[in-house]
Amino acid sequence: MKKSIRELKELRGEALRAMTALVEQRGESMDEKSLAAVKSFKEDIANFDAQIEAIESVRSLAMKSSKPQIENEKADYDAHQKELRGSFNKFLTQQTLHKEVRAVGAGDATAGKETVPDDFMRELQKRILEYGVISPDARHITTANHGVLKIPQLDDTTSSAVWTAEHGAITPEDFATAEIEMNAFKVTTAITISTELLEDSAFNMQSEITKLFAERLGRTMEDAYLNGNGTGKPLGIIPDTGTKAITSAAPVAISISDILDMIDSLQPTSTNGAVFYASKSAISEFRGWIDADGRPLLQLSADATQADGIKMSLYGYPVKPNYSLGALLTDEVPLIFGNPKNYMIRNVRSMSIERSDEARFLNDEVVFKGTARVDGKIITNNDAFAKLVML
Question: What is the span of the domain harbouring residue 30?
């Protein structure tokens, strides 16, 4: 029996959900039967995609605008769009789905209309908000499920051996253990976009949405790794009671003595691999510091380039900009110091970006949803970080 495009999409969605549920249930313990089922689901999805593509191709040919296109750019542009759409859909379903993109007007002003002009430059200018970069330096662990992850700890620093006389009694002494619990907090974002805008934009909106979601989720998670209170989100380095608090020697200013106090507040073993994460205003202060011979204390690496990012160090420790840190204002924290490997980030699977054509079907809109499940905590018993609190 011939099926409508709506029925095909519903069947495709059911197959995709069943495949996702099977993968989530089995995780890394996939047996041959489960792998065969996943393969069967993928073949069904590919079959539905082919039928949907065939129907949409016929419809698009029937509705194709008579307006001439820019012939000297069409071949390269179509090939580029096809590649990006294929990457996006492969990310979601491990299959490819191609739709024709038509250069006609769609959408409202400030909500996408500007991306479908008659005459345009094919480069989308975006405004980005800078944010911190704790995540690339931290220690990561990825789990297949969202159950509580328990990390055992051992504290034997109060115990020691004893000198014992010959034939003397040896008294056993137990060691003290504890554990850290890591949860899985969900961070989300979503956007609704009209079908017309997806089809008519001069840009690959699906690819742009993927990048946008990665930036949104990444910016939110990075801020939590520094400032999160542990309730419904990770416990950040700054609020953690284990982080050493150093108060600045002078009001709303950073001094060299503050830097030395931060370094000295940690055990020598904790300073191995340590990094200064500094706000923009803190780095501006460092640039004015010189030693007794007039040489700058903020050193630039010999291989530092603008292309790779300026690599800086202070007293031999790397200095990295972090825009989630505070300014030079009372009670703000513009600087932290420590080994980022002592901060663990738990990821449940990977970041997920999903598309739904059914959620807003009657509005002829498509909903994109991005989610990630993470937690973050300091995982060492030793002093791991120091923070500078402005007087």
Answer: 1-75
